[in-house]
Write a structure and sequence with these properties.
Helices cover 51% and strands 12% of the residues. It has helices spanning 2-11, 32-44, 52-55, 60-67, 73-92, 100-109, 122-131, 157-166, 180-189, 200-208, 218-233, and strands spanning 14-17, 24-25, 95-96, 114-117, 140-142, 173-177, 193-196, 213-215. The strands form two sheets. A six-stranded parallel β-sheet has the order 5-4-1-6-7-8, with helices on both faces. The longest helix is centred in the middle third of the chain and has 20 residues, at 73-92.
C-alpha cells in the first residue's frame, strides 16, 4: 500500500492527524478503563440506572456518548468535565507513538501544514504538544466540542473545520487515523484517509472499510513525506 501512499501524498497539500494513536497513546499511564469506571461512578452517583452494556464499557469516549442519550444536559456537562480533567492528567504520562513525531516533522519539512483532529479535548492535546515541544509544528488543533459528542468523528465537521482553518480543500488534505471512526469521518468529509493499523487485528478491518491506504508503521509515512519533499523540490 506504500504506492497508494505516495500517490496520495503527491496530490496532498495538508496533513491531518488523529491524536490518540498516530501521535501518542494518551491513556498509557492513566488507563482508559480506569477513566471509564470513574465516569461510570459519577453517573451512578446521580441516580441513573446503569444497564449491563454500559457497566462493561471501557472506552471513556463511549461513556461520554452514552451520557448524551440520557436527556440530562447538566449530567452530560459533568461527564464532559470529568473526562477533560482525566485527559489532562493522562497527557502528562502519555507515551509518544513510535515515529509519530517524525511524521509531523516530515510533513512540515515537505511544506504541508499539520493539524490535529481528535475526539480528545483540545486542552489535553495542547498540553501534550507543549510538553513534547511540538507546538510550533502544529498549525491547528481541532479537539472535541464541549459536551457535544455528536460532533465527534465520524461526524465530518471537525475535519471540515481543520481544512477551513488551513485554507485547504478537504480533497487536498490527508487524514491519518487509527480507527474506523477516522475512516468513516474522512469519507464523509470527502477527504483521503491513511489508516494506521497499530494492531494486527486492524489491518483487515481497515481494508474492508476501504481506507485509501493501510500501513502498520508511522515510519513509512514519514519516509514517504520526505520522498515527496525531494520530488517537489527537484
Amino acid at each position: 500500500m506504500t504506492d497508494n501512499l505516495h500517490a496520495l501524498l503527491a496530490r496532498s497539500r495538508a496533513i491531518l492527524l488523529d491524536f490518540d494513536g498516530p501521535v501518542c497513546s494518551i491513556f498509557s499511564g492513566y488507563p482508559a478503563p480506569q477513566v471509564a469506571v470513574e465516569l461510570l461512578n459519577l453517573i451512578a452517583a446521580r441516580g441513573v440506572h446503569l444497564g449491563d452494556d454500559i457497566c462493561t464499557e471501557t472506552d471513556p469516549l463511549e461513556m461520554l456518548r452514552w451520557s448524551a442519550t440520557l436527556g440530562m444536559p447538566e449530567l452530560l456537562r459533568e461527564v464532559e468535565d470529568g473526562l477533560c480533567r482525566a485527559e489532562l492528567l493522562a497527557a502528562k504520562s502519555a507515551i509518544p507513538e513510535p515515529h509519530g513525531q517524525a511524521v509531523i516533522e516530515a510533513a512540515r519539512a515537505s511544506g504541508r501544514p499539520v493539524a490535529i483532529v481528535s475526539n480528545n479535548s483540545a486542552d489535553a492535546i495542547e498540553a501534550y504538544l507543549r510538553a513534547h515541544h511540538l507546538t510550533g509544528f502544529i498549525a491547528f488543533v481541532s479537539g472535541r466540542a464541549y459536551a457535544q459528542p455528536d460532533r465527534m468523528k465520524p461526524n465530518p465537521e471537525p475535519l471540515w473545520r481543520a481544512a477551513k482553518m488551513l485554507r485547504v480543500e478537504p480533497a487536498m488534505c490527508i487524514l491519518i487515523g487509527d480507527s474506523l471512526f477516522d475512516i468513516e469521518g474522512a469519507q464523509a468529509a470527502g477527504m483521503p484517509v491513511v489508516a494506521y493499523a497499530n494492531r494486527p487485528s486492524k489491518v483487515l478491518r481497515f481494508h474492508d472499510a476501504r481506507a485509501d491506504a493501510v500501513l502498520t508503521s508511522m515510519i513509512d509515512i514519514a519516509a514517504a513525506l520526505l520522498t515527496a519533499e525531494r520530488v517537489e523540490a527537484g
